[in-house]
Amino acid sequence: MSDWIGRLGRSSAVHVSFAFLAMGSWALFANRAHPLPRMLLAGFVQGALSGCLTLFLKSAVESLSKRFSRSAAFIAPPLIACLGSASILIVIHTLSGTPEILRTVAVPLAVSTSYAAIYNYSIAIAKGK
């Protein structure tokens, strides 16, 4: 049983699906005061973006962490990942006509930035050993 759970936990498809459902649902909630078509589009767009960002965030942090040393290694990779994610989220939500852009991206951006910072910290600590 635990082997099955371990495989499930390492599955990219599971991570992407979870991100799609969790952050897409958040976007539905954040845009609940608007007409159904706009609310559903915001949920779908955020779900798709979160799925894609989840897929690429880990490798981006790993790649960026190799380019910096000392204190910059702790700050630059998650900061760059955060700025990149924020730019992508805001531009695509603007283009798709999401009514509540800041509310929609706040939680996904906080979650992805936290993940990037924690994962980057673990890489930076491991490099120091």
TrEMBL record:
Keywords: Plasmid
Protein name (record): Uncharacterized protein
Organism in which the protein naturally occurs: Rhizobium sullae (Rhizobium hedysari)
